[in-house]
Amino acid sequence: MKKLIVNCPNCSKQHDYYQSKPWSPFCSQRCHLIDLGAWASEEHRIKGQSISSVEEAQENSEHSLY
Ligand SMILES: [Zn+2]
Hints:
Bound molecules: zinc ion
CATH architecture: 2-Layer Sandwich
Order of helices and strands: EEH
Number of domains: 1
CATH superfamily: Erythroid Transcription Factor GATA-1, subunit A
Number of strands: 2
Strand order of the largest sheet: 1-2
Structural class: alpha+beta
CATH topology: Erythroid Transcription Factor GATA-1, Chain A
Radius of gyration: 21 Å
């Protein structure tokens, strides 16, 4: 099997990369779950912000029409 040394995207630890690992390119399943959780919470935060900013922009354009 071809061996490849990569840095874990979560903790930056150098480790052997195997495509057979379900949590690759993370060094461990733990790091994979941590990154997945961080991504999920970030996604929710960005969605909430974009919805409120769109509503504000529409409100401002309505006011400028009158
Ligand atoms: Zn890691």
